[in-house]
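Worked example 2:
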Amino acid sequence: MTALSALRPARSRWSLYAAAAVCALALAGASAPGAVAQPDPAFARFAEQDADSRVRIDYSVMAEILGGIVYEVGRSDRQPGRGRLERTGTRINLGSTSRYRYEGNRVVFHTMSREHEDVISQYRAELESLPSHVPLSTLSADEQLAYWLNLHNIVVIDEIARRYPVTNVARMRIDGEPLHDAPLITIDGQRLSLNDIRFNIVGANWSDPRVMYGFFSGSVGGPSIQRQPFEGQRVWSQLSAGAGEFVNALRGVEAASQGYRISPMYQEWRDSLFPQWPQDLESHLTAFAEGETRQSIDIGQLPDFLTYDTLIADLTNGVGRCGGDSGFNVVSTGSEMGPTASSPCNVLPPHARDLVVTVIERRLEFLRQGRFGSVTIRDVDTTPQSDGVARRITPEGEEISN
């Protein structure tokens, strides 16, 4: 499927609302590990949860959106930039020179039409309004966690899409404030920033370090955006997959001449997730590190910090939009990694082609080594689920007959 084709922007407003319904399944809820009892009083209302809740949120529309706009890069091979950006005959380099430029999934912002952006904005609004119809306090901890992660990520995508083309998340300002500090979200009457969600809500109520990897920052240096939304019933396995990708990438952990270096993201979460530093950090990293990464971790040494790449996590580094004034057309890439006859975007700029070629080469090499299909098994907290009857509720709180 070509990127963005799954969005079907021509659907009626009613069908979009119906598809974005909240699905309350009669399944026993599992509480998240390591809940913190005393959050910041200003955000205490968001600490309430119902461990016996049987309510589930249906993210099928978000799955459709992400499946259409996320270009899957795959696991890092820990090979830094291989000089592909040095091209004869030009000194102009519109691409990233970061060592991490071939890591992390990308959002194809350059292909989004205004119609697609409207669909994303409308879905964001529906997620924001959901707690006024289904109070968060009636959800299990796992279901709440999935909600906060999905809301955070759709807001990041929506805000970048509105301002695209932009090249650097750190330079984005909304009413004079950085993207992650601006109060962008209203939940049940309370204004929140993206950092409020990260630290004052999730960081205050979940002490499991895996929660870090669910937050898409919009930049290359952060956790990778996934093609599927988080779901309460499998949020911890999804976060474990994100942890494995990030820890074993160059932007996560790297050897140094003395000791080792880590992403500055870990420092951000130090107070809430790693109170015994660096022992708690070492335990977390070694639980997910593999091969070369595991050898890089110098146990007992204080880690240094890598440079955080704040460039936009897209294919073209914020240079132009399909059909815009960029001077080139760009390909709409889906899982098949190629142009389609119906797409008006049929030529990628050189630095974007480098990323696509690198991903193809990496996949072929993994296939040659027999690394596709391998499974890593870890002990993850699980709670048996029971079957039950479903009912559907629209974001307006109306029940739909099945």
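Residues 252-307 form one domain. Confidence is low (pLDDT under 50) at residues 1-38, 83-94, 323-344, 371-398.
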